[in-house]
Amino acid sequence: MPSRRRTGCRVSRPSGGPPTRPPVVAALERYAINGGAALALAADLLVAGETAFLQVGEVKQGMAAPYNMAWLRLRHSESTAAQLTLTGRRFPGSELTSLGIAYEAVSDDHVVTAARELVEELAAYPDGALARLKTLLRAYHDIPAADWFDRATRHPGPRVKPRAVV
Fold first, then answer.
1. Which one of the listed residues 29, 50, 58, 104 is annotated catalytic?
2. pTM, entire model
3. Is 16 within a domain?
């Protein structure tokens, strides 16, 4: 069994609240579309390849994008969320960085290495510091993250069935 290196990150629990986890760092190689985009948007820090792209394309299928919308509205401006969800187009790594969605865009063959280097840098910080900062960042929202997802998935309009895009 391979040995696991201790990163020094611990889960902290604000008084009376759910635990706050250390930051999630994700590496975006090639593409993240629809549900994959939601996973990329869920990361606290996203390292993207220069030609990798993220696409919230549900609008092209006549569908809502509740999880993408929830993550976008939790972390980004309405303008940024609108650009990604209303256009349904592909946003390359360099553009994701400009929009503040990606932490950095690196050469395509260096994505995983850059993400690992970032994790190593963060792991060197004092125990619990990053989790405490995440707690503070989330405290400035008027509603908890879980409520964002409830709100996004309770769209009052009719449900739209997926259809094939020709």
1. 58
2. 0.75
3. no
